[in-house]
Amino acid sequence: MKVGIIRCQQTEHLCAGTKDLRCAAEGKGAFEALGPCEVVGLVSCGGCPGKNAVSRAGILVKAGAEAIALASCITLGLPMDFPCPHREKILGCIRSRLGDSVTVLDHTHEASGHAPKA
Question: What would the pLDDT profile of 83-92 be if each residue is shown by its tens digit?
Answer without folding.
Answer: 999 999 999 9
